[in-house]
What we know:
The structure is a single chain. The protein has a six-stranded antiparallel β-barrel with strand order 12-15-14-13-16-17. The protein is α/β, with parallel strands linked by helices. The protein has three domains: 167 residues, HUPs (Rossmann fold, 3-Layer(aba) Sandwich), CATH 3.40.50; 55 residues, Adenine nucleotide alpha hydrolases-like domains (SH3 type barrels); 79 residues, Elongation Factor Tu (Ef-tu), domain 3. Helix 1 packs parallel to helix 2, helix 1 packs across helix 6 and helix 3 runs antiparallel to helix 4. 24% of the residues lie in helices and 28% in strands. The protein is globular.
Amino acid sequence: MPDAPIAVAMSGGVDSSTVAALLVRQGHRVVGMTMQLWNQRRLPELWAGAEAPVGHGRCCSLDDVYDARRVAEQIGIPYYVVNFEQQFEQHVVKPFVEEYLAGRTPVPCTLCNNYIKFDRFLDMADAAGARQIATGHYARIRYDEPSGRYQLLRGKDPAKDQTYFLFGLTQPQLARTLFPLGELTKPEVRELARSMGLAVAAKSDSQEICFVPNGDYAAFLHAYLQENDAAAPPPGPGPIVTADGRTLGEHNGVHRFTVGQRKGLRIAAAEPLYVIATDPKTQRVVVGGNGDLLRRGFFVKDVNWISIAGVSAPVRAQVKIRNKHAAAPATLHAAGGAARVEVIFDEPQRAVTPGQGAVFHDGDLVLGGGWIE
């Protein structure tokens, strides 16, 4: 299909808007699509004390749909809003709730990429006759002839690189995906948007998870479970204990805590205390000093290999254990099948958190990634 269009996932922000306009300027046929993922008017009680109006300043808000449509009209491309609310709730929101209640810390943006933005969206692109999709992610893709694999690389702008959230992409998905901003920095993208006269050139980036107002995960969990007629997680009290079993205080629910957290403990101590583990079965929150957060080894499950086929012998890599973590040197060891590895850091790292993603790098090359056990 030499004249097939490119389907652009338009979020209403400056990045995806610039992608659509840039592809049009390059002479491509483009169709814009906005994914409706979450009804921002659900759970209105969560917005009672919010700092911003419902849906304002967050991904996939009503304002974003308006902005995406306005840009599509400006650059003269067909535009559609596609409703993925049911799929988003099934594959992102429900696992988010289940993970928190199980004492793990989820990464909903990665789940959204895995199951919605590079899965369901490709199906929708097929329906529109598109051979490829394009998004505003800061990442790069290249095809490696010797291995016959599509490789994922970090974006040129280290401050905006988004490959941490893309480790679940498969070879068929990478083969059909374009990241036109991968070689650009954020300032360059804004300048490009201004030069093309895009109305969203100065629009600020969304910062929060689209379905969690003000970042209050615990309040969302309670409201969501009550809306679905499920028993809310027990509010406590539960014990706050040291690693050797001494009780220091009480809390009102382990789902309110994550590994590395310091705020909200309400305990007077001679040195700062941090959450080093949680146990939903016993409702215990275990705390310790900063040194207790350091770990050298851990296991990663459900590994998706991208730029290499997998590991059989030990492989050297830099490993990133959360989005803002500076990837640290480590050795990867096969640990029972291709989809599970043991990571051994050269130097212990702080707050290795169950439920978070672990992404393996070789310089700019993303080898793969999975979920911390």
